[in-house]
């Protein structure tokens, strides 16, 4: 039990940290370029959105693989329930962003997008293949909706993995088979992304489903290889510490690497380091290491709860705020983006975590009131 708890907590912490870095990269989009250049090399933190997504997708693949395999060993129904619980938060956040987009189109005078563009952008986002559509319609998508391609990728990857695990069932060779498929996917993804990058450019490489799936596949591979080979707690702690340190250094390194270098070197390395940390976390790493201590702190683990909603909300808030840059100072806009994004992600988490219980409580109270009222009415109708 201890092993599983530590395993999931570290994965949640890495997801949360990645989402926070992605928020910072969204903030960077509303800051003047000269201000970012003056902070070099610290401006790398505001240029690490793609690295943050690689870390997030690796942790997402790990968590999803662990849960689906554990649930599939019980029954197919349990696996479907586990799949929904992982995917639901990002879909709910997407629904709330959709409502926010519709509100912006109605009440924000700076929004000049036509109703047709808004409708088309949202419909394709909800098709969950929006990333493919954007490649052919770069000029026909709202800027505050285009970032929902992240949701498209998450749902696509989750659906493929869910089908694979469901088909393989409870067979003893399920783990090795999934590991082989994931390893093949890693190689194919990296090679395909390099090809797309050289022939079509980084935008196409960023949005391509196959070109982005190496991080997710590495996370799945790490989940399948937990305990193989076996390592001691001290060694596992050292691996987590070294991998985390290099990842932090990567935030600074992005200040010196061009976009081609980020896609060909930084992203695969970041995903591999994340997968290595997750694999080592399955060995219950020694908690005396600084990195392990940091990743196991409750407040760090808690950020994993808002990770997926934050990835969805931050780009929308930044794109909306960008239209008001001329009215307010850039620093104020950046602070508002951070506060509004965190507040929206936190509200989404509350809705998912507390909302169902609150609704059940209200429903039970309502039913109790109706029962009491019916009882009083029956008593009043009886003759004395």
Order of helices and strands: HHHHHHHHHHHHHHHHHHH
Low-pLDDT runs = 1-6
The strand count comes to 0
Radius of gyration: 23 Å
Coarse shape: globular
What fraction, in percent, of the residue positions are helical?
A: over 70%
β-strand percent reads under 5%
Query: What's the overall average pLDDT, rounded?
Result: 87
Q: What does the largest sheet look like?
A: none
What's the number of structural domains?
Answer: 1
- Figure out the total of helices: 19
Distance from N terminus to C terminus (CA atoms, Å) equals: 63 Å
Category from helices, strands and their pairing: mainly alpha
Write structural notes for this entry:
This protein has one domain. The protein contains 19 helices and no strands. The longest helix has about 30 residues. The chain is globular and about 60 Å long.
Give the topology:
Blueprint: H1 2-28, H2 33-38, H3 49-72, H4 76-107, H5 115-125, H6 130-136, H7 143-146, H8 149-168, H9 174-199, H10 202-207, H11 209-212, H12 214-224, H13 233-253, H14 259-281, H15 290-296, H16 298-302, H17 307-322, H18 330-353, H19 355-381
Helix pairs in contact: 1-3, 1-17, 1-18, 3-4, 3-8, 3-12, 3-14, 4-8, 4-17, 4-18, 6-8, 9-12, 9-14, 12-14, 13-14, 17-18
